[in-house]
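Structure tokens please, single chain.
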Amino acid sequence: MNNTEFLKRYRQDKTSVWVKVKLTNDKEFYFTNYKGSWEGIKATCDFKNLFIKEFILQFRSHEVIIDIPEDADAFYFVRSILGQMGADCQHYYTVGVIKGDNVQKDMYIIPELIKDKSYEDNIESCFEEGIIYDGRKKKKEN
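Here you go.
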């Protein structure tokens, strides 16, 4: 990733959790606002038959680099929240790599980006708006 370009934006907001995404055409996106930004990346990937090459979560100097294997069919990213009666709610970013119908999900507490949960799930339990399919595979099928 181009850290020089990222730092220009980061210096404007050092207190948020940043998401850094690099697509297979080497275009990079940096954002703190999930809504709108993720939708735009998803639309770009769908329209141009692209996929995510690199994905990094960052809070201050702490980076979490998400490994995206070559054989991944899709990538999953959503904001989530867990709560229980009488306790505070916990906010998360949930990221996952999809292969077939299986999703390996990791949940990171925000803003600290501490991995709290890791589990395998079924793709049917995912929110469709959080899934970006590998557009390069779609292109090969056509």
